[in-house]
Design goal:
three-stranded antiparallel beta sheet; alpha+beta; 3 helices
Amino acid sequence: MTTRRRYKPGDYELRVGRSYAGRGLFTDSEIPRGACVIEYTGRELKPGEDLTSRSRYLFEVTAKKTIDGAPYSNLARYINHSCKPNCEPYISRGRVYIFSRRKIRAGEELAYDYGKDYFGQYFKESGCLCPKCRPATLAKRRRAAKSL
């Protein structure tokens, strides 16, 4: 049985702030589980443009539609990756919405799993540095440096 989703972002107090990854999107209000938090917006790329774009804010909606979320007006661009996310993206009618996976307390950073393709393209060498993986990744780097 599927849950019917309401694809309309709530009126949550969101702000961009300092994060482990540079900047992140935080909530200053509590967000209930299963709530539509924000829409990922941006310019729709022309066919093939996704292959030449240097933007790190590309979101593939379908095989034929990719959104470049680079504009600063797209606050969802600041949502960082986490291997233990509190949000997840859903696609409906060619649009991308970010929903809460659990209740999110005021002050928490919003995060969703970017997926293996993104990491394969941008973080081959460094590995994952999300709060869940950071201690293990740094320990692995230290061991590798000692063995040199």
